[in-house]
Amino acid sequence: MYFPSQSTRRALQVLVLAMAGLILLGVVLAGATESSEPIHIEADRMISQEHDNSVVFLGNVDARQGDLVIRSDEMTVYYTKDDGKKKGASRVRKLVCRKNVEITQGDWLGTGNRMDYYAKDRKVILSGDAKAWQGQNMVSGKTITYYLDEGRSIVEKDRKAGSGRVKAVIHPETDARK
């Protein structure tokens, strides 16, 4: 039986915490952020679909708030209509990014072919060759699911491929005194 060293256990903890970068994404999208920084979204095209309560951003989508950046080819924001308390106020219900998805915040980077955020469940799913890095540490699989309130993540392999596996590359901390 293999027992990881102290530095390897620490590196594993850091890797798990890498998924915490998604927490900020969830907070921003849920509208629960206390940040007064504006959210900037740029795209080649925007389509408002009031009958679906959605807005679609197409082509070179770049969404930013502070140092959080989301890039994709397409981003659809699904929202709930105002509840009558605040005229014109709406909340994000779901967010879907498709194709060439990249999320960065500080030294954290997540990539995949799709990202789904579910506000009610407080869950983010990065799928389609999903990868997450924090510094040099990396984890990959078919999907990476992060439960915001639980601080828990699940990385799954591609079950159809059979040979697909979850992968992690961990760089143990080095002691500079040696």
Question: What this model shows, in words?
Answer:
With 178 residues, the protein is mainly beta. The protein has a single domain, classed as lipopolysaccharide transport protein A fold (Sandwich), CATH 2.60.450. The protein has helices at 6-18, 21-30; strands at 40-42, 45-49, 54-65, 68-80, 91-105, 108-118, 123-134, 137-147, 152-156, 167-169. Strands 1, 2, 3, 4, 5, 6, 7, 8, 9 and 10 form a ten-stranded antiparallel beta sheet that branches.
Mean pLDDT, to the nearest integer, reads 75
- Beta percentage is over 45%
CATH architecture name: Sandwich
| CATH fourth-tier homologous superfamily | Lipopolysaccharide (LPS) transport protein A like domain
Question: For the record, what CATH class applies?
Answer: Mainly Beta
Helical content, roughly? 10-25%
Q: What Rg, in angstroms, do the CA atoms define? A: 18 Å
Shape: globular
The main sheet comes to: 10 strands, antiparallel
H/E element order: HHEEEEEEEEEE
Low-confidence stretches: 7-34
- Helix-strand category: mainly beta
DSSP helical segment count = 2
N- to C-terminal distance: 28 Å
Number of strands: 10
The CATH topology corresponds to lipopolysaccharide transport protein A fold
Total domain units: 1
Write the layout of secondary structure elements.
Layout: H1 6-18, H2 21-30, E1 40-42, E2 45-49, E3 54-65, E4 68-80, E5 91-105, E6 108-118, E7 123-134, E8 137-147, E9 152-156, E10 167-169
Short description:
This protein is mainly beta and 178 residues long.
Name a few traits of the molecule:
178 residues, lipopolysaccharide transport protein A fold, ten-stranded antiparallel β-sheet, 51% strand
